[in-house]
Design a protein that fits this description.
Blueprint (H helix, E strand, L loop, with lengths): L1 E5 L8 H14 L4 E5 L5 H5 L9 H7 L4 H4 L1 E2 L5 E4 L8 H6 L4 H9 L8 E5 L6 H9 L2 E6 L3 H17 L5 E6 L7 H7 L18 H4 L1 H4 L3 H4 L4 H17 L3
Parallel strand pairs: 1-5, 1-6, 2-4, 2-5, 6-7
Antiparallel strand pairs: 3-4
Helix pairs in contact: 1-13, 6-7
This protein binds adenosine-5'-diphosphate and magnesium ion.
Length: 249
């Protein structure tokens, strides 16, 4: 089992859209995939038509006293399961703070998933917190959507520092440009040649496209309702590249 976290300390950068689309593409590739919606806002759960509710709440889940089988839901897509969000996740930080080894608790809670899934995708809330530290320890790969602006690149460096300080050595940080708007000069200039941002950057960029916003109306991954759209094809390319990186961890 491999774990990929879609993370950024900023909100509204395309984390959830990416997590849902890539989890779907991974499952269609034949990987037994679980998407864990860690954001109390529950957007990923909404997209996959699952109620954002975990009986017993997040604290028991992290402590391992809730059986994962009781709370994991199948989606309408074969091979793709969801561990839904719960409003109690907004207090996960406090729950972790009470734990003996806060940073390791999420990874420990995920151990029973090992034999059941090939890939776990974590859709993370936007924060730098104990939850994020726990995510760093649970993940093999940290996928970071970056909107091409100088401020976002600065945020990326903060994330890299956070990982250097808190994360385990083996964690691979993989940024990519997301919501690229070619009408904006800064977007064109920064995203034109992703490799100029360093070799870690993926070559694929995700365009800003209204079809992505329609995921909220269709409540499905892009490839399920608009497979030939340029944005869906960009996500397919992104998945290929990410799968390649996953092979190296
Ligand atoms: N590539 C894109 N093009 C246009 N809109 C997008 C794109 N990706 C995400 N969005 C929209 O932007 C908003 C924030 O995206 P979301 O994936 O929820 O970000 P995050 O999880 O980082 O907060 C949502 O309304 C979503 O539909
Ligand atoms: Mg989100």
């Amino acid at each position: 089992m491999q774990t990929m976290a879609v993370y950024n300390l900023k909100g509204g950068v395309g984390k959830t859209a990416t997590a849902v689309n890539l989890a779907f593409l991974a499952s269609r590739d034949g990987r037994r995939t679980l998407l864990w919606d860690l954001d109390p806002q529950g957007a990923a759960s909404f997209y996959l038509r699952v109620k954002a509710k975990v009986r017993g709440g997040g604290k028991k889940l992290l402590r391992g006293t809730t059986a994962l089988d009781d709370v994991i839901r199948a989606t309408t897509f074969p091979g793709l399961d969801l561990l839904p969000a719960d409003f109690s996740y907004r207090r996960l930080d406090l729950a972790l703070d009470e734990a003996r080894k806060p940073a390791k608790q999420l990874a420990a809670a995920m151990l029973p998933l090992k034999s059941r899934y090939d890939l776990v995708v974590l859709d993370c809330p936007p924060s730098v917190s104990l939850v994020s530290e726990a995510v760093l320890h649970a993940a093999d790969l940290l996928l970071v959507p970056v909107i091409p602006t100088t401020l976002s690149l600065r945020t990326l460096r903060q994330i890299e520092e956070f990982v250097e300080d808190q994360g385990p050595r083996r964690l691979l940080v993989v940024p990519f440009f997301c919501m690229v708007d070619v009408r904006k000069r800064m977007h064109r200039e920064l995203a034109a040649v992703p490799e100029m941002q360093g070799e870690a950057f993926l070559r694929t960029t995700i365009p800003s496209a209204s079809v992505v916003e329609r995921m909220g109306v269709e409540r499905a991954p892009l490839a399920a309702f608009a497979p030939s759209s340029p944005a869906a094809q960009a996500y397919a390319e992104l998945w290929k590249e990410v799968a390649g990186r996953l092979q190296t961890v």
